[in-house]
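If you are new to this repository, start here. Below is one unmodified record pulled from the training split, so you can see the exact layout before writing a loader.
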Amino acid sequence: MTYQNMTIIITGASSGIGKAVSLALIPYKPKLVIVARRSDKLRETAEELDKANIDFLPIIGDVRNAEDRNKIIDLTLQEFGQIDVLINNAGIGKANLIVEQPEEEIDELLETNVKALIMLTRKNHPYHEKGRRRTHYQYFFILCFASSLPFCCLFRNKSSSENL
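And here is the target side for that same chain:
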């Protein structure tokens, strides 16, 4: 598959896996939407994409916030007119033994690493179905929980509208 001129949203793009994926996509010349809470760190990613002459849109936002999720989708459609790939990478980690993890931290982990991922995917899904040039679309989910034994999964769902 070629990613040239495809619109790809990457959450958590200011550091770690999200930043690495953003930079790794440079040779493929996609249109990138990079999303993160930390503006200073997101600016660093943006500067590297700018040097590589990549068409991109930086968005400061927190995927836990419904208004920010709406902003991500709305600004992407305003700027690029379509969404081809969503890489749900935003997440947090809490370094505790899972059996000693305070309930508030468990709630924060679940809200950030699971609920926000699902809600952004739900917000985005109708725009995949309306895609004007494709019958396939892609979602990537990067889900991590930090405890005494780190747990990390990458889920990829490549669907056809015929299978819905």
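Two things worth knowing about this chain: The helical segments are 16-24, 39-51, 66-80, 103-129. The chain has a mean pLDDT of 82.
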